[in-house]
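$ run holo --ligand "fe (iii) ion" --emit tokens
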Amino acid sequence: MSADPIERKAPPQTRADWTIDQGWAGYTAAEHQVWITLYERQTKLLPGRACDPFLKGLDALDLHRAGIPVFARINEGLKRLTGWTVVAVPGLVPDAVFFDHLANRRFPAGQFIRRADQLDYLQEPDVFHDVFGHVPMLTDPAFADYMQAYGEGGLRALGLGQLHNLARLYWYTVEFGLLQTPAGLRIYGAGIVSSHAESIFALDDPSPNRLGFDLARVMRTPYRIDDFQQVYFVVPSLQALVDATLSDFGGLYAWLEDARDLPIDAVLPTDRLITPGAQAYARNGGRAGA
Ligand code: HBI
Ligand code: FE
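-- output --
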């Protein structure tokens, strides 16, 4: 995520918890069409790539093809399934606000949608990244528990000045995580599943390393905010994410104080190496070099 937006002034009509009304009636036909274009493109691509809990969640919430969904309608189903609701926010919110929402099973989703000329990339999470990318996974009980535990851990990490470590855990799981399944690797990370190009790159490209998930290893690994990841971490199950949050992070944070960051493309002898990466994409300058 870009620098903590806390210094940003809350836009008008934003409440103390940074939520706003979705104002669904205010979306233009062009904005609905952007959603439809993105939705159709991803739903053609994702079977066989996205994990079953994601695909089941997409169906369960009936994120209809007819345009930007009504959050209140999503919440009728979502709340019944796992107690989560989606709340509208103007964009990135301060870390403490973000974590407090997650700790209370509220997912803050950008109310705006990208322009038609930004289909493939935008820095700030819009309604397609948040609602199509993140919300379907919140219908899975284990992942729903993990996201709440992450929020609670985030509030603690803020108090300990350890946000940078925890942000890496979010990045390499919630945003860019892969799941091991009997049918092969599948996507659960929102940053991948909402991106056409990265939904292909993350599974098929020989460039990135794909390593077995390990909490301390992830917390020592920097990430890319401007391009495809150079490493993806693979969990054996979504329950493994919940189990990882049960350990005492305090001791881990202390250990991390002395442990140096690892190079983003490192492979350690202790890593569970699923696919070694040639890093050709990154070495050729990545998106800029494409
Ligand atoms: N705000 N709306 C929104 N969405 C995010 O994903 C988000 C945020 N604020 C902070 C943040 N993410 C990250 O800094 C934390 O995940 C660490
Ligand atoms: Fe996100």
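-- notes --
The longest strand covers residues 85-89.
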